[in-house]
Design brief:
Layout lengths: L3 H9 L11 E6 L2 E7 L5 H12 L6 E7 L3 E7 L26 E4 L12 E4 L18 E7 L1 H8 L3 E4 L2 E5 L4 E9 L3
């Protein structure tokens, strides 16, 4: 089952999504809007985790703090001063859900520990099969959504100049801010 299933679920709605369509969100960034269809059937814990952080306003004012062209853009945890925001407890890794780390997919960032994902996420800039279960490590990185509009914005973010800052590599030299996350549809 490829990530394209998310697009069908977002347009038709699913039983797990409740009375409406699958959840969709808009990441309003300083570079433009990115619309993402989430996949609650395949990654219920990851989707609910992301939506709770969005409802709490956690993402407001965070930055894309790790940008690697031809790989991914990562955000959701650092403020513009590269200070990590407090998070809730980590969630279980849902990478075995058969959704692949393809171009435009949204996945949970984590440490080397498989069940360590909290608020950070990344958007794949290309098909990154090595991030799927059995790739770089046996656990993989859990995909829980797909960009449905705004890949031009994602690509624009991927092209910003980066460098080292506050002990981190691949940091945009000029902050790319997630101004807010708007929840469009789905179970609340």
């Amino acid at each position: 089952m490829k990530i394209r299933h998310i697009l069908a679920a977002a347009s038709m709605g699913t039983a797990a999504a409740g009375a409406g369509a699958a959840p969709s969100v808009v990441l309003h960034t300083s570079e433009g809007a990115i619309t993402v269809a989430l996949a609650p059937d395949e990654a219920p814990a990851s989707v609910e985790n992301f939506l709770q952080y969005a409802r709490d306003g956690h993402y407001d004012g965070t930055v894309f703090h790790r940008v690697i062209p031809d790989f991914m853009i990562q955000g959701g945890g650092m403020d513009p001063d590269m200070q990590q925001r407090p998070t809730r407890s980590p969630i279980a890794n849902e990478a075995g859900n058969k959704l692949d780390n393809e171009r435009g997919s949204l996945a949970m960032a984590r440490t080397s520990a498989p069940n360590s994902a909290t608020s950070q996420f990344f958007i794949n800039l290309k098909d990154n099969d090595f991030l799927n279960p059995g790739g770089v490590d046996p656990h993989g990185y859990a995909v829980f959504g797909r960009v449905t509009d705004g890949m031009d914005v994602v690509d624009r973010i991927a092209a910003v100049p980066t460098g080292r800052r506050s002990g981190h590599a691949d940091v945009p030299l000029e902050a790319v801010v997630i101004e807010r996350v708007e929840i469009l549809a789905g179970k609340e």
